[in-house]
Sequence to fold (403 residues):
Amino acid sequence: MAARTTAASLLDLVGSTPLVELPRLSPKPGIRVYAKLEGQNPSGSIKDRVAKAMLDAAEASGELEPGRRLLEPTSGNTGIALALAARLRGYPLTCVLPANVTAERRRLLRLYGADIVESPGEQGSNGAVRLAIELAEKDSSLFMPFQYANEANPRAHHEGTGAEIAAALDRVDVLVAGLGTGGTLMGAGDRLRESFPDVVVAAAEPLPGDEVMGLRSLEDGYVPPILDVSRLDRKLLVTNAEAVAGLRLLLEREGVLGGVSSGAVVHAALRMADELDEGVIVCVLADGGWKYLSADFWEAADVEPTMDRSVWW
Amino acid sequence: MAAVRIPPTLRAEVGGARELDAHGSTVAEVIDDLVERYPPLAAQLLQDGELAPFVNVYLGGEDVRTRDGLETPVADGDQLILLPAMAGGS
Fold:
């Protein structure tokens, strides 16, 4: 019989996402591959966890007075998640995003009620971060949760994502997640080490196209303050073509329509599987493919030219 | 000999090349070989004898920081990629 439960708010449905086995993706009989389906969060991505946790923390500390405007650099998912949480809690939101993100993401942000400020597309996410910091410095009425430096981000994954995986499985040998802010890898990685001390925490990292690396010098590079690379066991570079190959495999073999970073995570997971004879690999799939449907890579024979001018995760 | 992919930000220092061949049996030796031929690279790539914080070096598609850092062995025909650290996380 179906359970008689209701939720008081969409925000109460953040987290507790399904963990599903992907037996048709496993390359060896002794290896079990699982996917944490973060696309099933209310706004469609893992960032619902982060947005909710950052607002909870800022409200609890008193920094975030009722009605104060939020500002966040984001190429999509964090903005959409923040826009949902901000709308339900009564905060206006401005998102700073690179001009070359997909049309769906811009439209979704607007529909959820966010205002948009565009940063130069060729400067990628670093450009959005730079511009957001400038705007926040000029206007002290703005509150910037700033996922890159906010400890509530990894904490949401320690107490949520990681704890949920640890509770669901008796064994985890490898955790694979996309590297963006580092929140998932730091938080869920640390939580899994508590239960499974030998777990290998592996990051899948995008190889950006030349066009989106528009930095004047390497000193303009950016390492998120919450990311401590020494707490990653592996850090694997994944090309756009490899990520799309992973996406197609995920869809064809398991019927999972993932976002670009999910394809990269699958690619990295299969690379890790090459090194193992047996074990349990958990893939964190950050979002579904819906927000990328206008992109040309899905059926493209040559993927790179369709992707090298944008930031994908 | 290894092939080293050069990011757009560093191409001016190496006469515009997208990729360079370099010698060395470790990542450190490969970088030393590049720096010897293109001295301005030193200030960009290294800081106090370590990789500068905003520089990532990948060997066979893996960040050398999660292998043996500058001491990671390089074999003949390996491909290295130099990249600036980028903010991700949508």
